[in-house]
Amino acid sequence: MLNKQKLIDALEDLWDVIDHQEHDPMQANGVNRAIAFVGSFPDDNSWVPIGTTFPEENQKVWVTNEYHGGSRRVEESVYKNNEFYGTGYSHCEIVCTDLVKAWCPRFVPKPYKEVSEE
Question: Which of 11, 69, 74, 109 has the fewest beta carbons under 10 Å from its own?
């Protein structure tokens, strides 16, 4: 199994090379976004089984969905109106509550904003 922290450390090393040695801010920004994305993945101990408690209204979460045959997949979701909605569909939201076995919070970073020097 891949260690999340080791992956983040490797991406940070890559960012350092791209930003400081290659001076490519666009690629460095892409690596920085990858670091935030990997950081948003759940740790093994952060999963909440269904029926224990539920997310807050409109909270973005990760869910473990179980499909026919027992295969499981981690997917993005939003919890609203007592349902989990899949967010990976371009034109509509799909209720996936019956598939959800567990959920955990999804970290979504705030957009970058320059700091004004005063």
Answer: 69
Name residue 13's amino acid. Answer: D
Helix or strand run (H / E) with residue 85:
strand 83-86
Rounded to whole angstroms, the Cα distance separating 40 from 103 reads 13
Enumerate the H helices of 1-118 as residue ranges: 4-16, 25-39
| pLDDT for position 90 | 59
**Each residue of 53-108: pLDDT tens digit?**
899 999 989 999 999 899 999 988 999 999 999 876 655 677 888 899 999 888 76
| Segment among 9-18, 28-37, 105-114 with least mean pLDDT | 105-114
Decide if 71 contacts 35 (C-beta within 8 A). Answer: no
User: Which amino acid, one-letter code, is at 91?
Assistant: H
Q: What is the per-residue DSSP string for 64-81?
A: EEE-GGG-EEEEEEEEET
Query: Domain boundaries in the chain?
Result: 4-39, 44-105
Place of tokens 């948003």: 40
93 Cβ contact list (under 8 Å, min separation 6):
78, 85, 86, 87
